[in-house]
Amino acid sequence: MADDDPNKVWPTGLTVKEAEEIHSQLIDGTRVFGAIALLAHFLVAVSTPWLG
Amino acid sequence: MNNSRIWLVVPPTVGLPVFLGAVAVGSFSVHVAVLSNTTWVADFLSGQELGSSATASIDGKVKTAAVTDPAAKVSMSSYDGERITVILPDGRHAEAVIDDPGIDLALEDRLREMAGK
User: Fold this and answer.
1) Is this model's pTM higher than 0.90 or not?
2) What averages of pLDDT result for each successive group of 10 residues across chain B (117 residues)?
3) CB pairs under 8 A, 24+ apart, for B32-41?
C-alpha cells in the first residue's frame, strides 16, 4: 500500500520518519515540562496553604 | 511512534502552536482561578504570614455584620455570651470573640435572639 511507503511525502510535506521524529521531540518536551511542573506543584503544596 | 502520523495530515507549523497555546492558556486560566480565590498569594507578596489576611477579612465581616445589620450578611448559628459563631453567605464558618464584657445589653439581647436563645 502507498501508506506504508516510508519515502512517501504526505500533504504536510513530511514523511513518516520525519513525523515520528517531530512527535518524539514533542513527547520528550511534554515529559520535561510535566516533570518540572510536578516538582513545582509539590514545592507549592508543602510551602503554602494550597490544598489545605 | 504512537499517534505520530498526526503530523502527516496536520502541519507542525499549525499543530505545535495550537498544542503549546492550549497548554499555556489552560495552565494560565487555572492559576488565575486559584489565585483569585485565595488570599495567601497577596500575603506572600506583601510579606505577611500566609493566611493571615483571610482570618482578618472574616473577622472584619463578622464584626461589621454583627454591629450593623447581621441579618443582611450572615446567619447567626450560636451565641454564648463571649463568642459568636456565624455562617457566612458562602458557607464558611467564622467565630468572633467579644472582647468587651460590657457589651451593649440591647445588642446582646438581639444577638441571643438571633441565635435562638
Assistant:
1) no
2) 93 97 97 89 86 69 51 58 71 74 69 73
3) B34/A50, B38/A49, B38/A50, B40/A48, B40/A49, B40/A50
